[in-house]
Amino acid sequence: MAAPTDLHRSLNRHLEQVVRERDPYLASAGHFFVQQYIQQQLAQWGEVDAYIFDYRGRPHTNWVLNLPGQDPNRPPILIGAHYDAVPGTPGADDNASGVVVLLELARAFAAEVPRSPLRLMAFDLEEYGLLGSRHYAEWLRQQNQALRLMISLEMLGYCCQQPNSQNYPPGLQYLYPNRGNYIAQVGSWPTIPDMVRLWRGFRKAGVRSQWLPVVQQGRPVPATRLSDHAPFWDLGYPAIMVTDTAFMRNPHYHQPTDTVATLDLSFLTRVCQGLINGIKAL
């Protein structure tokens, strides 16, 4: 396993490559570059498969790396992050932060075999309506394939210690802290034991964590459905979104100012280490 300082350097090195405009239509060169970078990095640890789907008459690709688990009879844990970004932003937090953590999870679990098989996926077209994850979730259901769990890595690198820096959907402000200095987990009700395991992993890494169980696929709180876990919820798969809460905390969300300079790389490193710790227990 990488030491914290090595992990910090690796995450920063990945960010230097991934943080750039990468809308598939308006910044196609950046989008293509990031695809190639993800593929090359994942290919260090095994065979990378391309899951191809069509949108607007063009093919788009989710990149997939399968890693073995100690028990090959267990259904896999799918861990995903989207690599596209909205036009006009370099997308450092949204969602380069999730992508670079995904790449480091591949490194960590290629070196140390987890209990369950892992399926690491870089999704395309999240910003166009969760299309990459929706296509893949529907394909899994058509194939009658089970998942142990789906984990969506959605914006992991923004942290603010100021009072009242954290916003919430109505009502939740009475239950959770007003400082945006923690990582959040939002999961379907059956995933509560897994959120507790991940919470312990984050605590061991020295990062605060809060978790929110939802019912009815998150529909009573629409903000909980705004990433790649939602299509899996809708099809009955257990899924958790891990997030810094996006626009409820980060003022640079979907803005040209979503740059590496706005991220807290120490926080991102602890989040990554916490995920490594927690996934070992799943």
List its salient traits:
282 residues, alpha/beta, Aminopeptidase, 7 helices, 19% strand, globular
Structural overview:
The structure is a single chain. Helices cover 34% and strands 19% of the residues. With 282 residues, the chain is α/β, with parallel strands linked by helices. The protein has one domain: Aminopeptidase (3-Layer(aba) Sandwich). The protein has an eight-stranded mixed sheet with strand order 1-2-4-3-5-8-6-7, with helices on both faces.
Question: SSE order, as H and E?
Answer: HHEEEHEHEEHEHEH
Global geometry: globular
Give me the side-by-side strand order of the main sheet: 1-2-4-3-5-8-6-7
Report low-confidence residues grouped into runs of 5 or more: none
How many domains? 1
Indicate the CATH class: Alpha Beta
The number of helices is: 7
The CATH architecture can be named as 3-Layer(aba) Sandwich
- According to DSSP, the number of beta strands is 8
Which fold name fills CATH's third level, the topology?
Aminopeptidase
What amount of the residues lies in strands?
Answer: 15-25%
